[in-house]
């Protein structure tokens, strides 16, 4: 398969070909994602929740993102790897922002970065794009602002907030973003935004009319995701149960001394055994 690129994603939108995106945070999950045909891998700062066990994405650092992005980019060749800029790493000076983006690209080997926010971060998006780095936007429910928003609530339900989100999406496109994630917004709004933008929309909890969909690895595979079940998630496997059952069997066999068996056991050469015990 051909390598995924930001230009190919725009072409997919033009052709009406859906874009599949999923998060991955380490080498094995990224490798499996590539083998399964995922178009875009997001090293999401949701790793703060699903990997590190925090209650939000706020504690995630740029160093965390670089570490996980390195592991993911070592594993894949075809999918486009997009990496999240974490909380408060793109709200100071443009110089500081570009330094962080530079580290994610140079050390993590990401191919693009994702930033949360709309019109208010458009100048920042423009500066990053001018520096040659593709930017994915992210509007709607933006988890880095969860304490300002006041919870994980559906966005754009009334006409004023829908209007604002449409303007935000357009501002991001204008600033040079190559795609935009729509998180927890109504079907009506995501349909409107998808129609009015030339760049692809990638939905999560945003209905079926986006140009692509994204889900969190741990959610779609039921990998002990600490968050309560969400209406917008469909689970396609239950690897949490598979892992728990496997580990429980291992523990049982250690306790009953049925593991290790002879086939897992090494023996000395006869002469050495003779020397040791003879
Ligand atoms: O961090 C993440 O997983 C995300 C997706 C939910 C879009 O930002
Ligand atoms: Na994120």
TrEMBL record:
<dbReference type="GO" id="GO:0008168">
    <property type="term" value="F:methyltransferase activity"/>
</dbReference>
<feature type="binding site">
    <location>
        <begin position="45"/>
        <end position="46"/>
    </location>
    <ligand>
        <name>3-methyl-2-oxobutanoate</name>
    </ligand>
</feature>
<keyword id="KW-0566">Pantothenate biosynthesis</keyword>
<comment type="similarity">
    <text>Belongs to the PanB family.</text>
</comment>
<keyword id="KW-0489">Methyltransferase</keyword>
<keyword id="KW-0963">Cytoplasm</keyword>
<comment type="pathway">
    <text>Cofactor biosynthesis; (R)-pantothenate biosynthesis; (R)-pantoate from 3-methyl-2-oxobutanoate: step 1/2.</text>
</comment>
<feature type="active site" description="Proton acceptor">
    <location>
        <position position="183"/>
    </location>
</feature>
<dbReference type="GO" id="GO:0032259">
    <property type="term" value="P:methylation"/>
</dbReference>
<dbReference type="InterPro" id="IPR040442">
    <property type="entry name" value="Pyrv_kinase-like_dom_sf"/>
</dbReference>
<dbReference type="InterPro" id="IPR003700">
    <property type="entry name" value="Pantoate_hydroxy_MeTrfase"/>
</dbReference>
<dbReference type="GO" id="GO:0005737">
    <property type="term" value="C:cytoplasm"/>
</dbReference>
<dbReference type="GO" id="GO:0003864">
    <property type="term" value="F:3-methyl-2-oxobutanoate hydroxymethyltransferase activity"/>
</dbReference>
<keyword id="KW-0460">Magnesium</keyword>
<keyword id="KW-0808">Transferase</keyword>
<feature type="binding site">
    <location>
        <position position="84"/>
    </location>
    <ligand>
        <name>3-methyl-2-oxobutanoate</name>
    </ligand>
</feature>
<protein>
    <recommendedName>
        <fullName>3-methyl-2-oxobutanoate hydroxymethyltransferase</fullName>
        <ecNumber>2.1.2.11</ecNumber>
    </recommendedName>
</protein>
<feature type="binding site">
    <location>
        <position position="114"/>
    </location>
    <ligand>
        <name>3-methyl-2-oxobutanoate</name>
    </ligand>
</feature>
<dbReference type="GO" id="GO:0015940">
    <property type="term" value="P:pantothenate biosynthetic process"/>
</dbReference>
<comment type="function">
    <text>Catalyzes the reversible reaction in which hydroxymethyl group from 5,10-methylenetetrahydrofolate is transferred onto alpha-ketoisovalerate to form ketopantoate.</text>
</comment>
<dbReference type="GO" id="GO:0000287">
    <property type="term" value="F:magnesium ion binding"/>
</dbReference>
<comment type="subunit">
    <text>Homodecamer; pentamer of dimers.</text>
</comment>
<dbReference type="InterPro" id="IPR015813">
    <property type="entry name" value="Pyrv/PenolPyrv_kinase-like_dom"/>
</dbReference>
<feature type="binding site">
    <location>
        <position position="116"/>
    </location>
    <ligand>
        <name>Mg(2+)</name>
    </ligand>
</feature>
<feature type="binding site">
    <location>
        <position position="45"/>
    </location>
    <ligand>
        <name>Mg(2+)</name>
    </ligand>
</feature>
<keyword id="KW-0479">Metal-binding</keyword>
<dbReference type="Pfam" id="PF02548">
    <property type="entry name" value="Pantoate_transf"/>
</dbReference>
<feature type="binding site">
    <location>
        <position position="84"/>
    </location>
    <ligand>
        <name>Mg(2+)</name>
    </ligand>
</feature>
